[in-house]
Design goal:
single chain, about 270 residues, alpha/beta, nine-stranded parallel sheet, about 45% helix, about 15% strand, globular
């Protein structure tokens, strides 16, 4: 059970790891910034921030599930990716989260294939996250994109909110090979309806999510449709994540455990 950094993005990694451990999580995601002006935190080799982050992981018995985020845009190059890749390797992360913001399909798949190879060299597995406001909007498109990039090691990351807002259904998940779905992100929302306004969807995704099980998303059904070995990451930014990050993370941990308990219960027969 991992906690995505976006759930309390203003908290520096060492403190974020401590809060996550107190909340009952055993892993975290880390948001890595390429430059001081980027969202996230710079974790440069030899820096105090990287050293303190690694110490916090060891002190709290935690691991890093994923690092993020590489955004493939029309001008993407290796120089844009190196900070995240190197930090992921230093933190012994398992996955690299990738989004695509390039409508040139051939260029985007070529860049993704190159990135996947570089990520593998750093001990990371690329996972593509579909979002309706990106160039790869849903699960079906993401599965095809990964296949067309001709990189069998890459995977697809399912985010419960984006999955719902794209109007996807459980049948799409059940048709995907288990190897393509190594981990997923969960949260909740006031509605499970597909999005009609991309700007509203962006705002909701970045600042206005609910704790798992506190809204209308079919999380129990979604998780039952995922592979049994899938890792769970909680991504739930909200106003609480800014005003009371420690309390919010504790609530996320409790809520997530309740959802996972419901997943393991045998459904009653009608």
């Amino acid at each position: 059970m991992s906690l995505s950094h976006l759930s309390a993005i203003r908290v520096p990694p060492p403190q974020f790891i401590e809060y996550a451990a107190l909340g009952g999580f055993n892993a975290v995601g880390v948001r890595v910034a390429q430059t001081p002006t980027d969202r996230g935190f710079q974790l440069i080799a030899g820096s105090a921030m990287l050293r303190d982050t690694k110490s916090a992981l060891a002190d709290n018995g935690m691991r890093v599930l994923d690092v993020e985020v590489v955004k493939l845009h029309p001008g993407s190059s290796r120089a844009d990716w190196v900070a995240v890749l190197e930090a992921g390797a230093e933190l012994d992360a398992s996955f690299l989260l990738v989004t695509v913001l390039d409508d040139d399909y051939d260029r985007a798949t070529a860049n993704f294939a190159e990135l996947s190879g570089l990520a593998a060299d750093h001990g990371l597995r690329c996972c593509l996250e579909p979002m309706i406001f990106s160039s790869v909007r849903d699960v079906a498109a993401a599965t095809n994109f990964v296949a067309d990039a001709h990189n069998s090691d890459a995977g697809v990351l399912i985010d419960a909110l984006h999955w719902s807002r794209a109007g996807s259904d459980l049948a799409e998940l059940e048709a995907i090979d288990d190897d393509l779905l190594p981990y997923c992100q969960i949260c909740d929302a006031v509605s499970a309806e597909p999005a009609t306004d991309h700007n509203a969807a962006i705002t909701e995704a970045r600042t206005d999510r609910l704790a798992p099980g506190r809204g209308a998303l079919p999380l129990t059904e979604l998780l039952r449709a995922m592979p049994s070995a899938v890792a769970i990451s909680v991504e739930a930014p909200s106003a609480r994540s800014v005003s009371d990050p420690r309390g919010w993370i504790a609530e996320l941990g409790e809520a997530t455990r309740e959802v996972l308990e419901s997943v393991t219960q045998i459904p009653s027969q009608a």
